[in-house]
Specification:
InterPro entries: Adhesion/Biosynth-related (IPR050904), FAS1_dom_sf (IPR036378), FAS1_domain (IPR000782). The protein has about 325 residues and is of the alpha+beta class. It is built from 13 helices and 14 strands. A hairpin with a 2-residue loop joins strand 12 and strand 13. It is elongated.
Length: about 325
């Protein structure tokens, strides 16, 4: 039951936001706060023997929400222990942005413990070990995916992400490991592969699954090879003329060509896309799509058909799902 509920929480977090954190305060750190805290302690941290433990370090860095919740979850002894760990600690504002119902769910000690353990790796991994498309086992026997993207600002370091969440500050050293600050709260991958994610919500994706089966590409969404999946909803398919949809359901060749154009060759979370970027798909001749990124969100242009991304960055075990509102029908 807890796993099903966590799946629901992930969907909520992908789709909505919130204003106040459930810990009883409104914690909104800025870059300067964390940088100043780091600089005050930097001389001490040059001496490995003088470093704080991971829990104390999170407090010193101004990560008050993580610090308080880790204790509430009973993880203080783990984060103060002698075993080497890696912690992906969310900013206070990351917790603050969680939907209200998700915040409420984290009052359940079991759910809170599972969520925070998902931010802990049972070994030390500095940023040099965080390689593109690396899958890492977490302390609760789930996995996170690392991706490394070019920075859209010229001359800046590449952007490292954990399940699509940018690493805000890397390599904060502790006596028992290393802490990386991330911009989102991470949730365990209880939904499985991309296909399993769809079949868990047939009210939204039943027609999509039927079309994938008609196209003979459903196994691509269920295999271990990782991709980016642009998934149209039932409502997206209902925009088609009924005769067009019937034709696709009965023409496996055309359906295959179309659905393969909804699968990108690489794993790309939204932070990894550039505006007006050409991306290769699994379609014939590596058919390209154009991704448009702006203040209003993200769109995909497939030969003149524009599809808006409704829900971005749903991590699955074989890549990432972006839910779109229009089928890229044109060849």
């Amino acid at each position: 039951m807890k796993l099903v509920f966590l799946t629901f929480l992930v969907a909520c977090c992908c789709a909505t936001g919130a204003n106040e954190i459930f810990t009883g305060g409104n914690f909104r750190p800025n870059n300067e706060d964390i940088l100043n805290s780091y600089q005050l302690k930097s001389s001490r941290r040059n001496d490995k023997n003088a470093l704080p433990d991971l829990l104390t370090l999170s407090s010193e860095l101004g990560l008050k929400a993580f610090y308080l919740l880790a204790q509430r979850a009973g993880l203080d002894s783990m984060l103060r222990g002698t075993d080497s760990l890696t912690v992906f600690a969310p900013t206070n504002s990351a917790f603050d942005r969680l939907p209200q119902n998700v915040k409420a769910s984290l009052h359940d000690p079991e759910v809170l413990n599972r969520v925070l353990l998902y931010h802990i790796i049972p070994k030390e991994l500095k940023s040099g070990s965080l390689q593109n498309n690396k899958v890492i086992k977490t302390a609760n026997n789930s996995t996170v995916r690392v991706n490394v993207y070019e920075n859209q600002e010229a001359g800046q370091d590449k952007v490292t992400t954990i399940n699509g969440s940018p690493v805000y500050k890397k390599d904060q050293l502790a006596e028992n490991g290393v802490l990386h600050v991330v911009d989102k709260v991470l949730f365990p991958l209880t939904k499985g592969t991309a296909l399993q994610y769809l079949t868990q919500d047939m009210a939204t994706y039943s027609q999509t699954v039927k079309l994938l089966e008609a196209a003979g590409v459903e196994n691509t969404l269920n295999q271990t090879t990782a991709h980016t999946f642009l998934v149209p909803t039932n409502a997206a398919l209902e925009k088609l003329d009924p005769a067009q949809l019937r034709h696709l359901m009965n023409d496996s060749k055309t359906a295959s060509q179309i659905m393969k154009r909804h699968i990108l060759q690489d794993v790309t979370f939204h932070v990894g896309f550039f505006d007006n970027e050409k991306v290769k798909t699994l379609g014939d001749n590596s058919k390209e799509l154009t991704v448009l990124v702006g203040p209003g969100g993200m769109e995909v242009n497939g030969n003149g058909t524009f599809s808006r991304v409704l829900i971005a960055d749903v991590p699955v075990t074989n890549g990432v799902v972006h839910v779109v509102d229009t089928l890229l029908y044109k060849p």
